[in-house]
């Protein structure tokens, strides 16, 4: 186990420990490397494809030649698991009495559910759409992020004990509290795209001339 906190670890928004799993991959311990990733996030396969990898910008190897291909190595171990077959995750024992509801099954909602289920809470995710994944499924094209990768990441979360209800829009939070949930996390996403401030040529001329 790598000790200390490396610059690449600090740079990771999700708190993944790259130096830990890269060292395990170098030793041929692919399953153990995947477990290191899953200590922080459940989306090893998805992040191995679409993460912007800020960790590589802070990789100390850059001082000598090129940064370690951290994201690609994450993808490698996730794909290795798919290729050889993933063992079903062991359900987490419930140790807390309170139930928590998650509204939305996108990355934020699923990550929240993942952390809570491992802390011993009973967790239910309510999703209005027919399938789970949010942005991962509906916002990223297939050639960048295959649906089977998304499905595998989400299946792992469900196997831990997270209940997911699709086709279940929530219109009244009071109804959720009435069902016995003590807390609600809203992970409904950003459904509208940002508009680019691109002016037609005439408009740009006016803007540049101060009109």
UniProtKB/TrEMBL annotation:
Q: Which ranges carry the Dihydroprymidine dehydrogenase domain?
A: 6-83
Kindly name one Pfam family recorded for this protein: Fer4_20
Annotated Gene3D superfamilies: Alpha-helical ferredoxin (1.10.1060.10), FAD/NAD(P)-binding domain (3.50.50.60)
Query: Could you tell me one molecular function GO term of this UniProt entry?
Result: iron-sulfur cluster binding
Instruction: Indicate what this protein is called per its UniProt record.
Output: Dihydroprymidine dehydrogenase domain-containing protein
């Amino acid at each position: 186990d790598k000790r200390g906190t490396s610059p690449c670890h600090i740079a990771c928004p999700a708190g993944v420990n790259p130096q830990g799993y890269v060292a395990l991959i170098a030793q041929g311990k692919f399953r153990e490397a995947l477990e290191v990733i899953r200590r922080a996030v459940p989306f090893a396969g998805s992040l191995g494809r679409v993460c912007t990898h800020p960790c590589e910008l802070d990789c100390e190897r850059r001082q000598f030649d090129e940064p370690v291909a951290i994201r690609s190595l994450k993808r490698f171990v996730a794909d290795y698991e798919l290729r050889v077959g993933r063992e079903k995750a062991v359900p987490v024992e419930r140790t807390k009495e309170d139930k928590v509801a998650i509204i939305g099954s996108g990355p934020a909602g699923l990550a929240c559910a993942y952390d809570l289920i491992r802390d011993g809470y009973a967790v239910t995710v309510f999703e209005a759409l027919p399938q789970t994944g949010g942005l991962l499924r509906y916002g990223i094209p297939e050639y960048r992020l295959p649906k089977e990768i998304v499905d595998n990441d989400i299946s792992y979360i469900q196997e831990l004990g997270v209940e997911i209800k699709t086709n279940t829009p929530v219109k009244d939070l009071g109804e959720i509290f009435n069902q016995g949930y003590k807390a609600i996390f809203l992970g409904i996403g950003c459904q509208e795209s940002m508009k680019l401030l691109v002016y037609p040529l005439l408009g740009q001329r006016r803007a540049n001339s101060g009109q």
